[in-house]
Amino acid sequence: MLRKIIIHLFALSIAFIIGCFAIGALITGPAPSAVGTLSVDFPVKAVQIPTSNDSFTHGWLVYGEQNDGVILLAHSMRSNRLEMLSRARFLNEQGYGILLIDLHAHGETEGSRITFGLRESENIQAAVSFLRHTFPNERIGAIGTSLGAAAIVLAEQPLNLNAVILESLHPTIEEAVENRLKLHFGEYASVFLPLLLSQLTFYLDTSTDELSPINRINNLDTPLLLISGTSDAHTTLAETERLFSAAREPKELWVVPGARHFNMHIYARREYEEHVSDFLSHYMR
Asked: Along the chain (285 residues), what's the average pLDDT of each consecutive run of 10 residues?
């Protein structure tokens, strides 16, 4: 009887370990998707920006008014540039040029694994370089949400942007994973955090420190607007406030009442457009 119990427990342990490896592979797996074409009322130019290792960052370029500035838009996890389309329309109506991109292993940009901002930061660097070459006399800003925000912060080369807006950004990869474990599997799911983190570092061949924006946000020598929702369980308000404290001046924090971890522009359109317009107008023009 005891032997059967031991064998059963051993089998469960093996199944659990295999399951954790499978989860690690699943959450880092790519999210390719076709973005299609847009209607004629919002003309865009398809671009392929050389990035690294013969890879390209795919995106759409929208021209704005001369001397009004250009804004780079970076989407969230398992999404693509279409997520940022409503922001692109509103900003372009105000005269800004827009570059919407698909991050590494998302949309039409190739990649074998999602890397939580690490490889995605190369897309940000390439996109900023592209904008500087294409619009040498324009000021350049960036808006990133969740994964896109992490990619902006984790960029190694100085981006030298004129304004940055970060939405729903997690401070550390540990907190990001733990919050999602609790949301999907309950409060006690935190016991699986070390094993799952080990799978992430195994698949991505990097340390958790390299995936944590709070370790890099002080490197952003750029006016910053940080946006968070009071009901965001993926990135709590307390976590956002820690990020804000770690960032350089000049900086602003806008907390959106009732907002969760989703598209802030869709949720609070009028207030979003007011805050973002005021911030960008101050630093981009």
From this structure: 57 51 71 84 93 91 97 97 97 98 97 95 97 98 98 93 98 94 81 84 89 96 97 96 98 97 94 98 94
Bridge partners of 172?
none
- Residue 32: enclosing H or E segment and its boundaries? strand 31-32
| Residue spans of alpha helices (H) in 53-192 | 85-93, 120-134, 147-154, 173-185
Global model pTM greater than 0.85 = yes
Write down the residue that tokens 């912060």 correspond to.
153
Does residue 37 sit within a domain?
no
The pairing of strands 45-50 and 140-145 is unpaired
What is the C-alpha to C-alpha distance for residues 238 and 247, in angstroms, rounded to an integer? Answer: 15
H or E stretch including 145? strand 140-145
Q: How many structural domains are present in the chain?
A: 2
